[in-house]
Amino acid sequence: SIDFSDVYLATVQPQPQYVVIVMDDGNSLSSNQLKTAKGIAKQFLNSLSGRDRVAVFGLASRPSFPRDPRDDSCLPNSLVPATFEASLFFSSFVDNLRQEDASTNHSLGFQTAFEMIENMIRRSKGVSIENAMILYISRGLLSSLTEGRDIMETISIHNGRLDHRVIINTYAVIDDGKHIMFEKSILQDIAEQNFLKYEVNYKSPKPVIARMMVTINSTKDLSVSVGRFYLPLNKSAPESPIFSLPYMDIADQTLTMSISQPCFHGKELIGIMGVDLHMEDVVQDVTYYNQEINSYIFLINTDGYTIMHPSFNRPMKTRIQPMHTDIWHFENKDGFARIRSDMLNLPEGERELHIKRGNTNATEDNSSKSDFYAKYIWKRIENTTFIVVLKLLTEVGTTQALEHLHVSNDPHLVYHRLDLVQPNDMCLHRHMPATSDTSTVFLSPKSFLDPFEHLSNLETKRMVQNYVAYLKDDTRLITNPGLKSEVKSDVAATGRINTEWLRRYHHRLNHQEESIVRRYVATPSGVFRSFPGTVIDKTSDPTKTDWFQRAGEFPGHVTLTPPASNHSFGTMLL
């Protein structure tokens, strides 16, 4: 799980670290040495934060990668963000490494590591990368006396191309009581990039940054050496606050974001201070946005990670550590990459994307396809790393506008909290109060002006009576109990279907049909009317269900969704 170490590291080391971890798993290592090497690799993975980038591979006669290069062109060729998920995946890969029955090709290992860094720099698109690190974990046993010079030549050629921006730290894994003088020597020379000793030439306007070799026979006190390895990469911590990515807080099991800031005495860093915020507080205006039909808001940070998106569960419903994912995974339309780049680099802006969307029937010709324009409007939130984006979808052609009509309110309105305000005829459905006399109305959190306050407060009989009185009122004299303006008209409009539902229900009873069909209707404002009426979980949101979103995606069509088990709405097939 994620703890405060990630927040601390991101605050005191805000500059991203670029690390390639190479772990020797050739036949020269004993079982104890292999176990120690795995412990070192995993300790380094745990020392990274989400701002860093990392690559990991095992090395014997050839490299072994976390994923087959034929299946994934990214992991074997570059560095990826050191997110919680990536570190977990790489740690599992390290745990599963087995000793290969082949000697270690050290030169190939360094060539592969440097090529990964070169690919990352080439793909960084103008991002300045001052230094990177190769962490080499090995016994250091060479297959021939000349291999040492081959290794140094490989390092000289590749690091020379990078102006010697890459530092190398080495771990010599040993067993107690064994003579390893030569192995320690070569790993020391590699860390210091001692080209002169091997008569290897190098050309670079910048000096070589010599680093260190550490001899180790167990994983005890590893953290001390890990910290020393980072020293050349550390810069002074800025005084601006650091915003973490959302994580599950261990203490109260809620989705949380930390805002932290380094504290200095003079120029000396003495610690950090911070505050934890519930994500429900931070993003409620984003998660419950419903101002425009065919529009939504999402929140990203300046690295492109998605903080909140309609595809996500609401923070209050999140129970597992979220996967930190780039926004292009959710807005995966041709042409969005350019818009994403503008979002990350411009403080505000507006861009339009032409989207072709096919009809639901694959057998129809192309004339049935609809073209859409997706308009992205964004603005960076001042003094934060957040970017808020509004996406508007507009169909090409004439847009039909809805006419505002006055609809009289339903005098027989029943709110879904049958446990608080009981109707005349009530039964139990799945151990919950229900009624077949009429439909009931549920108001999701997005129906309220302050969704989080609604979720935080316990609904009482008095509150329910206030809702019903306001929704029934035609005089406009009763005070709004905190509902959005469109909710009242949506409740009235959906009430017109109640008569038809009752007619069909009684028709089935007259024909002695024992089963009952659950029927429901929902609006973008979060109003949900269902028959038979039943109590619904307060945190539910019908607009987030598959059936609602699919129907909205294909207007004018009858859509089908597979059976879905839902604790609020029951098992259904649409």
From TrEMBL:
GO MF annotation, one: voltage-gated calcium channel activity
Superkingdom assignment: Eukaryota
Cellular component terms per the entry's GO annotation: voltage-gated calcium channel complex
Database matches in InterPro entries: Ca_channel_alpha-2/delta (IPR051173), vWFA_dom_sf (IPR036465)
Protein name in UniProt: VWFA and cache domain-containing protein 1-like
The organism of origin for this protein: Crassostrea virginica
Gene name as annotated: LOC111113996
